[in-house]
Amino acid sequence: MASSPFLSKPTISFSSSVSTSLPWRPSLSSTAFRANPRRRTLTVQSKIREIFMPALSSTMTEGKIVSWIKSEGDVLSKGESVVVVESDKADMDVETFYDGILAAIVVGEGETAPVGAAIGILAETEAELDEAKAKAKAADSGASKPEASAVTPTPPPATATPAPAIAQPATSAAPAGPRKTVATPFAKKLAKQHKVDIATVVGTGPFGRITPADVEAAAGIEPKKTVAAVPTPSAAAPAKSAASSAPALPLLPGSTVVPFTTMQAAVSKNMMESLSVPTFRVGYPVNSDAIDAMYDKVKRKGVTMTALLAKAVAMALAKHPVVNASCKDGKSFYYNSSINIAVAVAIDGGLITPVLQDADKVDLYLLSQKWKELVEKARSKQLQPHEYNSGTFTLSNLGMFGVDRFDAILPPGQGAIMAVGASKPTVVADADGFFSVKSKMLVNVTADHRIVYGADLAAFLQTFAKIVENPESLTM
Description:
Blueprint: H1 30-35, E1 48-52, E2 62-68, E3 75-76, E4 81-86, E5 91-95, E6 100-105, E7 112-114, E8 118-123, H2 129-151, H3 163-166, H4 185-193, H5 212-218, H6 233-245, H7 262-274, E9 279-287, H8 289-298, H9 305-319, E10 341-343, E11 345-347, E12 350-352, E13 355-356, H10 364-379, E14 393-397, E15 416-420, E16 424-429, E17 435-448, H11 454-469
Parallel strand pairs: 10-14, 14-15
Antiparallel strand pairs: 1-8, 2-4, 2-7, 3-6, 4-5, 6-8, 9-17, 10-13, 11-12, 15-17, 16-17
């Protein structure tokens, strides 16, 4: 992705951003317009655009400002990088789609904002700078007022964590002056039904959003939550004490609270989604003497063991396409047209899976070269979205750490993931009862049981083992 559309379509507010003085007079007749058609031209005297937090990936819900490349007052040209945003996977330069002046920065460096929120204000000319700065100040004060009001209540005596301050009950302090009314569709419907002026309702939802409960409260309707209070005091007491004691657990002395980074939050979200997928696991021992010998020959040419394994997996998937399939809605599945091997890489502060696209068709040496480039980009947080979110099968290798076996968690939207352990000497017996020592590695595959069955996975592992035990085809 060469550029990210972080600037919205030019949403111009005709009450503030566009001059209301039109070049024609209402009293002129239509014949006057025909006589002088130039007077019909609408001239926009000011354009003030909001710079929005871009959605840099399909899973991104919020972004963090790593740094502003430009400062307030700088003149911007179309296509010029303005800000560096940290998404859930990478840091990306965001370019502007318009010429103008960066009038104000709303979200500073190190701060986060949800996707679609205004992070800066862009003015077209110097004449609009004051108006743009006033708009930015109004937006900034509007966003900070709920936070200020949330700090005023007395803090809980037991803990010093910031969590209780986030979940404060609704306060009735309405912001002074005009404000933008944001309400859910159902809340607007209830407001019309109960004849409530929604502009006077104070929202308690995220970012001051008006919820149906807020409208019902303004209409004087009792909340329909009395069911929880029906049980007898003996039954309600334990539940109440358990609920109140859960968030009040004190920290151990010397402990510190470390919030998730954007990447860690994305990994956490994906892992929680994985819990909804019915999975099963199959382990398979593979003789690794031949592939170890091949690795000793080709590593001097820049080939890594990861590239060898990814190539072997891709060739096995070509013969068992159901293991490369995907199920996302729980109602159907589809065969992927490409075999894209995502390989798990641990980086500072998280985990990412760069993707080797069309791994079954790419030459082994080119595949290894591409892998090294992806690892460098991953560790510098410069991966593009298509380089980490297009995987159809995932490979996780901990063999280099001496781990002999482990299970991997299935990424959402994929059919299977393979966990590869270390190659270790193992005593084996042949058909005649003679013992020998051979190197073996144990691979465990976690699969989505909605689309992949035990026989499918067993057949795939047999094919993979044959390729690894006879790796000459990997270099062809």
